[in-house]
Design goal:
The chain has 267 residues and is an alpha/beta fold. The protein folds into 2 domains: 2-78, no CATH class; 100-240, 2-Layer Sandwich (Nucleotidyltransferase, domain 5). Helix content is 41%, strand content 15%. The protein has 8 helices and 6 strands; from the N terminus they run ααααββββαβαβαα. It is globular. The model has no long low-confidence stretch (mean pLDDT 91).
């Protein structure tokens, strides 16, 4: 199928596919139940994530939407994109002449507007004055994803510190010692939750006389990471019925960004 259609800008390159095919192969390529090439199914998912289209509007020259959807569900349930991000993060850190595992991280969240599909699990963010879901992330000092959690927008940032700290220490082997946060994470409860996992919270505050946009030390890195995900229109709003699906698409987005970064650096 790949040779019979005009390529989309979102299609995976040969170098990227050679890297990620082993992560995405859950059964043999020539398995009798496989009707469509795995690479084309991945191309279909990449197109959907970038275009933000409903499933049923997928172009006819890609595999049927139902086939891409079913394979996507398998990948998300198997944690394929999380595993890919973990390995890509190590490679990108080594390419930047950093240690393979970080010793510091940055925490933050963003509120994603709900839709009728996700409205049943949405909450109201009083600060942002928006109803939807809140995506909490932990990134290293280069902006690469370490851990992620999706909650209702009504949930407090400080209440997610323990879950994020535990997840980060799991993937880094208890190597992280410091977390940069904003003032939404202040308080003894959040500090104690981080300390249980050997992490110290450092609150980066705004200058007292702030006028206009101010670039905060360390904190700008996680804001850039959220900006990177804005390239994927599927993440512009919460179109998913399940929180796990929204989380899976964020892992996918970071995997695609890191793939591009890795092979751009090596070109």
């Amino acid at each position: 199928m790949t040779n019979e259609r005009k390529a989309y800008p979102s299609d995976v390159s040969d170098e990227e596919w050679a890297f990620c095919v082993s992560y995405l192969t859950l059964m043999k390529e020539d398995a009798p139940q496989r009707e469509h090439p795995l690479r084309e199914l991945f191309n279909g998912l990449r197109w959907l994530a970038r275009a933000g289209s409903p499933w049923r509007l997928m172009p006819h020259d890609l595999p049927p939407w139902s086939a891409v959807y079913q394979q996507t569900r398998r990948w998300v349930r198997a944690g394929c994109f999380e595993t890919m991000v973990e390995d890509l993060r190590v490679l990108l850190r080594l390419a930047a002449e950093r240690n393979d595992v970080p010793s510091a991280m940055i925490l933050d969240s963003r509120t994603v507007q709900s839709t009728p599909e996700s409205g049943s699990r949405a909450g109201y963010d009083g600060h942002k004055k928006r109803k939807g879901s809140k995506v909490h992330i932990a990134v290293d000092t280069l902006g690469h994803l370490l851990a992620l959690k999706v909650t209702a927008a009504s949930e407090q940032d400080r209440a997610q510190v323990e879950a994020l700290a535990q997840a980060v220490q799991h993937v880094t082997g208890d190597h992280v010692e410091l977390a940069y946060v904003d003032q939404g994470y202040t308080g003894e409860t959040s500090a104690a939750a981080a300390a249980q996992h050997g992490i110290k919270l450092e609150v980066v505050k705004h200058a007292k006389a702030k006028r206009g946009f101010v670039l905060l030390p360390r904190r700008w890195v996680v804001e850039r990471s959220f900006a990177w995900t804005a390239r994927f229109r599927r993440l512009a709003r919460d179109y998913e019925r399940l929180a796990s699906t929204l989380a899976g698409y964020h892992w996918l987005a970071f995997a695609l960004l890191m793939l591009k970064s890795l092979f751009t650096k090596s070109a």
